[in-house]
User: Fold this.
Amino acid sequence: MSPNLVLHHHPLSSFSHKVLVALYEKAAPFSAVTVNYGDEASRNAFFALWPLGKIPVLRDEARDLTFPESSVIIEYLEEHVAGGQALLPKNPDARLEARLWDRIIDNYIHVPMQKIVADRLRGESEKDPRGVADARALIVATYELLDRRMQTRQWAAGDDFSLADCAACPALFYAGIVAPFDRYSSLAAYFERLLVRPSFARALKEARPYFDLYPFKDDMPARFRNGA
Assistant:
């Protein structure tokens, strides 16, 4: 295991939360660099590291390797960090199941949620109401799929907390604010299990000082803002 892992992220970033949950589940020692896009030096340093400029990015300084993309980062941690929670099963079929639900949650909840949030930040002339409506419809359809799935299981894939649950933590947290899922009882119960997972609770605690920057902060439940 490398003791020189460096995570370039932001505490409010949903995909950063996904990787933080994995790091905490693995009990992996790492240092963190907060990327501030509003600061020229911070922005330039990060784009020099990863020209596409998307967080999070993991550096393994000992091996001189750089990894973008949250799912790839977590797979790297699983291969190179000993101990902690296993986030990808050893069985090939079970591993494929975890990867599948990771992609479903990211592509059909996480990404459309970000579409809705980004639209809130646009000027009136740049808003995309049709795109936002399509994003909401995709999220709701995926809620229905996950709700049926979670009627008979504790975690999203397999019997144990996995890569798929790392994805679900921030995806459901932020999506639930812009598209509440209270009427989906099994999905809501699953989310409550995620909320009390120590790894995710820690990531949210670190994000709390930044919640005032969130475009939908007025719609955020008080228990999230106050840590209740």
